[in-house]
Structures are given as structure tokens and as C-alpha cells.
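pasting L-serine ammonia-lyase for the record, 388 residues
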Amino acid sequence: MAIDAPTSLPVTNGHTNGYTNGHTNGHTKPQKMSASAKTWRETPLIESANLSKAAGCRILLKLELLQPSGSFKSRGIGHLCSLSLARSANPQNVHFYSSSGGNAGLACVHAAKTLGRPSTVVVPLSTKAMMIAKIKAAGASEVIQEGCSWKEADLYMRETVMRRAEDRGEEAVYVPPFDHEDVWAGHQYMVCEISRQLGGEEPSVIACSAGGGGLFIGIAQGVEEVGWKDTQILAMETQGADALNVSLRAGELTTLPGITSQATSLGAVRVAERAYEIAKEGEASGRVVSAVLSDAEAAMGCWRFADDERMLVELACGVNLALCYGGRLEKALGRTVHKDETVVIVVCGGSNVNTEMLANWRLEHGHLEDEGVANGVVPSGKTAPNGA
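structre below
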């Protein structure tokens, strides 16, 4: 159900961190935005009987794949676009610019269209034709291909495309995919929704994809805002797109030499500095857990989710859902998961998926299915580590 965005959302002025011995390094202050903007939706929080049975605990799914753009990106990027327009002295001159080969670009286009403003997306040469077609169909004014990587596409957009736009008299607004306080604040509100939907119950775990860190930061801020003291955040990545985990193991913010994972939506070679700070402090306190699965496991998560809940998600989301199968949740957390625990999985969605891709993943990685699933029993009770 679409809802009006709140007339104010938390915007971080400074840094807030509930994982640093209970103190904060800044403050959160509401900033006004248009009450008529509908750049994102409140999404359902549902309990999955199938995934709960497979995981051996209570699994709740936050269905962010139902956002206008098909992913959670609509929250943070929609929030940034709405605030940018509200701050502008000449909103009729605003033109949004996003460098993304996928979900962030789609979110920018959907938000811009909702706000009545044009948008341009610059994508790297590696972006698939399917994604370019989706961005154009969503209403982008222009889609430009440039550079071999997102970094090169982003540089070209900021130093060439946006400068030309400003020379034409436009107010060119840069829309980063993850590393911005307004983006984090938009994602932060997701936890406020979850808290209300749970009726005051505090979950044991919230599992989310890490990627560049924008969602992870927003969830950490949200957990602090609602006052959850014992909730762990499980930050998931795939091998080859694991910049956060590599940084934590190295003890310093580290840049990957490149992205080798097929989960390209997680493909940030360097996470936001704020994400590393929160993860480092949270890991030391036990409040944050960083875990990495293979592309094959992420693919398995996608097709098992399609079987169990009849929904399609891309690899960057499947890595979270794979936790429910084969005891992976316990392995990731490094502890026993009890039957009465509540685990919230952010079903972040994504548009880089279709039924053909799902079928091919299953053909390639079908060895990950247990015998019960292969024989048509979905889900397999044998996957529950505690026999639930």
C-alpha cells in the first residue's frame, strides 16, 4: 500500500552510533519535506512458515522488493531526492543525476518522476541491456554508457555530464547510491516501521545486504533510534563483493582490486567509511556480525525463495535468504539459533533477475539442494538445524 511520506524524517547531522559504549557523536534532527511526495512505500512485514521451518526459528520478511523501483533503494534515494527538491531555491530547475548500473539508478528515476523532475543515469559499459531497458522504461530522460566500472561512470557523470548541465542553467543534483547522510536517514525509517509492525517486540537479529553500506548504516541508526539493546545486525556479502568483511579482517578500510562476484548490486570496491566504523565497533561488542557466502549459495537463496514464497529477487538479496537453509544462519552467527528467536530478513529485492536466470542458476548450482528438495518437498524439514 502506498503511503504519504512523513512530513519529517530523521536526517543525520553528524554521526550517530549505538555501538560505541552507548554514546553518540552527533544528533538526529528532523527536516521538513513535502507531505505529498510518495517516493517510497511502507512495506509489509510477514512471517514465512516455510522459511521458519527451514531455518528453525521465526523468520519475518521485510518485503522491500515491493518498493516502486523494486528495491529498498527507493527509501534512501527517494528521501534524498525529496529533500534536495525541498531545499532548492529554484526547484523547477532541478535535474537529478545518478551513476548506477542498476537499482540505485532505477530508484532515482522513479523518485524523480514522482517529484515531477527529470533524471539522467550514467551506467558503466558492463551494464546489461536488460537493466538499461528497465531504467529507460522507468522514465529516465537519458541513459549514458561510459567507463568500465561504476567509479569511472561516476567520475564522468560528475566532471563532464553534470558540468555541462550546469552550463545550461540546470541545478544538477548528484544522487549517490549509498554514501550520503540523507540516504542513510531514509533507510533508517525502515527500522521504525519494523518496530511498529512488531508491536514493541525486539527481534534477535536483522539480516541485510551490506554492499556499499548505505542500508547497513541506516539499519544501525534505526536500531539505536527505537532503543533495541540486544538486536544483532547480520551484514551479508558474497565472495568477490565483500569489501566490508575484507576491511574488518584487515583492521582498516580496504579497497578491493575489483568485483568478481556475480552479485553486482553488492559491487562496491570500498564501503562507506561510516559503515566500516559502525561494523568495527559493533563487531567488537557482538552487536554486528559480518558474514560472506558464495555466489552459488546466493543463487540457491533466490530459487528456494521463489519456490517457498513465489517471489523473484536478485543475487544481492538471495545471499540473505540463503541463511534460512542448511544451517547457514547458525554458521553465520557462530551460535545456536533457538526456536523462539525472531529473525527479520530485509528482502531488499533488485531488478537484475528474471525467470531464465533463476532456472540457469538452479541448473548450475543445483547440487546445493538437499535430497528432500530435489524430490519436490519444499522446504525440507531436514534443513532446520534444531529439528523445528
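The chain has a mean pLDDT of 87.
The longest helix spans residues 150-167.
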